[in-house]
From TrEMBL:
Domain Rv3660c-like CheY-like N-terminal as annotated: residue spans: 9-117
GO BP, sorted A to Z: negative regulation of cell division
Organismal lineage: Bacteria, Bacillati, Actinomycetota, Actinomycetes, Streptosporangiales
SUPFAM superfamilies in UniProt: CheY-like, P-loop containing nucleoside triphosphate hydrolases
UniProt cross-references to PANTHER family, sorted A to Z: SEPTUM SITE DETERMINING PROTEIN, SEPTUM SITE-DETERMINING PROTEIN MIND HOMOLOG, CHLOROPLASTIC-RELATED
Protein name: Secretion/DNA translocation related CpaE-like protein
GO terms for cellular component: cytoplasmic side of plasma membrane; cytosol
Gene Ontology MF annotations: ATP binding; ATP hydrolysis activity
Domain of life the protein comes from: Bacteria
Stored InterPro entries: Cellulose_synthase_operon_BcsQ, CheY-like_superfamily, P-loop_NTPase, ParA/MinD_ATPase, Rv3660c, Rv3660c_N
One matching Pfam family: CBP_BcsQ
Gene3D superfamilies documented for this protein: P-loop containing nucleotide triphosphate hydrolases
Length: 351
């Protein structure tokens, strides 16, 4: 299938340099026509047309067919004639650089992302340290990808050592959070996917193992917004001590899974985490781990619906320590839980 690129029409080299830089920030490639006559083969099929004010008059003289998605761009001060030129070329608006750079980045990114999947976000949080939240988040993402769901696994814990380790892919080529942290605004999921380690239908945004640094909430917002448009499922591993970026992820969650060890200390710890989650998200469900307490006692104690029980998986820790991804054959507890969740437990919207 032919992929069409945004079209830029200008013979102003300074303006073109700006537009090339802005397109690169959006993660898209563009076609360039230095003269109005050269634009005709691209005019109809380009998802977006950006016209430099320097060629607006000559372009209008060629009587291009009417179309949506035409922008007139200028680098100069206010010019009374610019709106006449805007109308003449059929543009929807005039963007003045550098003030409108952010808007133009978003326009480029959106134009190259016509496919919208409306992916759901699932957050996974441990009610107590060591409850297995990161492992469950990883397995949910793996199982979803094996079911041919386009999936993004997001590590929201800057102190977690990198969720890519749980996949056995800590040496995979691609960006981690430090390389994505400056992203904000609307970005293309295709560009994000190209930058990150990707394995079939699974893309991973992991922390790193250098000096820890906070994840900006603006970057989390940009990543999750792009993934919502480009994915079927987004799984976020959320730390117990909530950061602004974690709160941003929770605010977008269709459901948040709180893993609770079935013992007194596990329930007490989860009871401290739960109110913090509920400040940012509505649909919290408990998943209980093995212990001495029954699910009904935990449900009454936390006053939160119980989603399911996740048994221990034999030899899992040894498997992970050998640098291997979690074994997810159909008979394993993790695989059974993940398949059941993906089949029947993901709500269409928070309740």
């Amino acid at each position: 299938m032919t992929t069409h690129r945004p079209l830029v029409i200008t013979d102003d080299q300074d303006l073109l340099d700006d537009l090339l830089r802005i397109a690169a920030a959006a993660g898209v490639e563009i076609d360039v026509a230095h003269a109005a006559a050269h634009a005709r083969p691209f005019w109809t099929h380009a998802p977006l047309v950006v016209v430099g004010v320097d060629v607006a008059d000559t372009l209008a003289a060629t009587c291009p067919p009417p179309r949506q998605g035409v922008l007139l761009v200028t680098r100069g001060a206010d010019d009374p004639s610019v709106w006449r030129r805007c109308v003449a070329v059929g543009a929807v608006t005039v963007l003045t650089l550098p003030e409108a750079e952010r808007r133009l980045v978003e326009e480029f990114a959106e134009a190259c992302e016509p496919e919208t999947r409306s992916g759901e976000t699932v957050c996974v949080v441990g009610g107590r340290g060591g409850s297995g939240a990161s492992v469950l988040a990883t397995c949910l993402a793996l199982v979803a990808a094996r079911r041919k769901m386009r999936t993004l696994l997001v590590d929201a814990d800057p102190l977690g050592g990198g969720i890519d380790v749980l996949l056995g892919e800590e040496h995979a080529v691609g960006a981690r959070w430090p390389g994505i942290a400056e992203r904000e605004g609307r970005v293309s999921y295709a560009a994000l996917q190209d930058a990150l380690p990707t394995f079939g239908d699974l893309t991973v945004l992991s922390g790193h193992r250098g000096a820890p640094s906070a994840i900006p909430p603006e970057a989390m917002r940009a990543v999750l917004g792009a993934a919502h448009r480009g994915c079927d499922l987004i799984v976020v591993d959320v730390p117990r001590h909530l950061t602004p970026a974690a709160a941003e992820a929770l605010s977008r969650a269709a459901v948040t899974l709180l893993l609770v060890p079935s013992d007194v200390r596990g329930v007490l710890a989860a009871a401290q985490v739960l109110p913090q989650l509920q400040k940012h998200t509505q649909c919290v469900r408990t998943v209980t781990r093995p212990g001495t307490l029954t699910p009904d006692i935990i449900t009454r104690s936390l006053d939160t619906p119980h989603l399911g029980f996740l048994p221990d998986q034999r030899n899992l820790a040894d498997h992970l320590d050998r640098g291997l991804a979690p074994p997810l054959t159909p008979q394993t507890p993790l695989a059974r839980f993940c398949h059941a969740f993906l089949t029947g437990s993901l709500p269409e919207e928070p309740s």
